[in-house]
């Protein structure tokens, strides 16, 4: 049998694997983008941020528990080893910064800004990891990296100015804030969410090597779910039922929350992880850049959010800056900065 005849089935298998990986990564990125759309639809039905976060985490908790169990089972004997006290506290800390705090801040910010601006700000995660590496780990910042950072933040500024001009159309705020103040407040909250998740990425490297990415995501997410449920109860009690209430919410909120917990949270985590396995982290991350563009389309379709040339230009500029930054970071980061490979939207 010729060498060509032997290699042909292998080539076909490789192509099929690559195609499956591309489809998984693409579907995961689009599904993650739907999170903001679903949340803003829930706001329109009378839910507040604490109800949205609480319902989402309550419904996702059993699935994350199953994910953590399955990841441990797949890892064999090593996966059944209990966490040490140090590992347990590390996982709780990562769950606090990467999933609980980042998710809460993100949903609070989504009340005031468009889904497109939220997605653009969250895509600054790689730049924030780089800046944290510079300030905390002493990593040297190259001029080319600085230029990529400036490109990314210039793009976010363009998208922010788009929201600023149409503030009365994108803000879901029912507070005493005027529309433009609400957009500024929402942008700050989502940026803090991105910063919180960047801290999670900075601290997750060592545990990824010890536990595996899927087990770490599952256990940290379970911890975050518990934190969100406790927060939900405390806020509801402290506000005497004004925040976090469910009695007045229609059935649509429950249905949207189920969609948020499954199709926009747990399922995309598996899809993206599968894409990473088949394509590699670099290619899967580049496919994930379709997220902000799909957010613009989904927001326009389901939320009637305005789409303008300036919005598209700003979003494209953000993606260009992040793409340039990712291509320049070919050298492996220091161990402290190695992280779970996830798209930005997977944690909130």
Describe the structure.
This protein is an all-alpha fold and 348 residues long. The chain has one domain. Helix content is 78%, strand content 0%. The chain is built from 14 helices and no strands. The chain has helices at 3-44, 49-74, 85-110, 115-122, 125-137, 143-165, 167-170, 179-203, 205-211, 213-238, 251-279, 281-287, 290-303, 309-328. The longest helix is centred in the N-terminal third of the chain and has 42 residues, at 3-44. The N and C termini lie far apart (53 Å).
Write the layout of secondary structure elements.
Blueprint lengths: L2 H42 L4 H26 L10 H26 L4 H8 L2 H13 L5 H23 L1 H4 L8 H25 L1 H7 L1 H26 L12 H29 L1 H7 L2 H14 L5 H20 L20
Return the string of H and E elements: HHHHHHHHHHHHHH
Distance, first to last CA = 53 Å
Rg calc: 20 Å
Task: Give the number of domains.
Answer: 1
Q: Please, what is the oligomeric state?
A: single chain
Q: Which stretches are low in confidence, meaning pLDDT under 50 for 5 or more residues running?
A: 331-341
- Report the β-strand fraction as a percent range: under 5%
- Gross morphology is globular
Biggest pleated-sheet summary = none
The chain-level mean pLDDT equals 83
How many DSSP H or I helices?
A: 14
Question: What is the number of beta strands?
Answer: 0
Structural class call reads mainly alpha
- Specify the helix fraction band: over 70%
């Amino acid at each position: 049998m010729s060498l060509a005849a032997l290699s042909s089935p292998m080539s076909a298998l490789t192509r099929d694997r690559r195609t499956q990986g591309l489809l998984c990564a693409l579907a995961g990125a689009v599904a993650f983008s739907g999170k903001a759309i679903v949340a803003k639809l829930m706001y329109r039905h009378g839910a507040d941020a604490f109800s949205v976060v609480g319902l989402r985490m309550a419904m996702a908790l059993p699935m994350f528990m199953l994910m953590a169990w399955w990841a441990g089972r797949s890892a064999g004997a090593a996966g059944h080893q209990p966490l040490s006290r140090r590992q347990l506290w590390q996982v709780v800390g990562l769950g606090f910064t990467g999933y609980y705090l980042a998710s809460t801040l993100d949903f609070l910010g989504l009340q005031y800004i468009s889904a497109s601006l939220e997605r653009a700000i969250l895509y600054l995660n790689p730049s924030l990891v780089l800046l944290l590496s510079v300030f905390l780990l002493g990593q040297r910042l190259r001029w080319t990296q600085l230029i990529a950072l400036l490109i990314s933040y210039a793009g976010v500024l363009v998208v922010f100015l788009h929201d600023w001009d149409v503030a009365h159309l994108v803000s879901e705020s029912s507070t005493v804030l005027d529309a433009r103040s609400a957009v500024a407040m929402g942008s700050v909250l989502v940026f803090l969410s991105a910063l919180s998740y960047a801290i999670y990425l900075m601290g997750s490297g060592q545990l990824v090597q010890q536990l595996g990415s899927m087990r770490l995501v599952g256990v940290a997410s379970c911890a975050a779910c518990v934190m969100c449920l406790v927060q939900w109860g405390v806020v509801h009690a402290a506000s005497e039922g004004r925040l976090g209430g469910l009695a007045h919410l229609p059935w649509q909120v429950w249905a949207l929350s189920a969609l948020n917990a499954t199709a926009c949270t747990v399922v995309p985590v598996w899809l993206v992880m599968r894409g990473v396995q088949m394509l590699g982290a670099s290619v899967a991350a580049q496919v994930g850049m379709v997220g902000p563009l799909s957010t613009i389309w989904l927001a326009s379709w389901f939320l009637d959010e305005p789409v303008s040339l300036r919005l598209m230009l700003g979003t494209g500029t953000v993606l260009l800056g992040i793409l340039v930054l990712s291509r320049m970071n070919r050298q492996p980061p220091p161990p402290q900065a190695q992280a779970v490979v996830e798209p930005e939207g997977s944690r909130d």
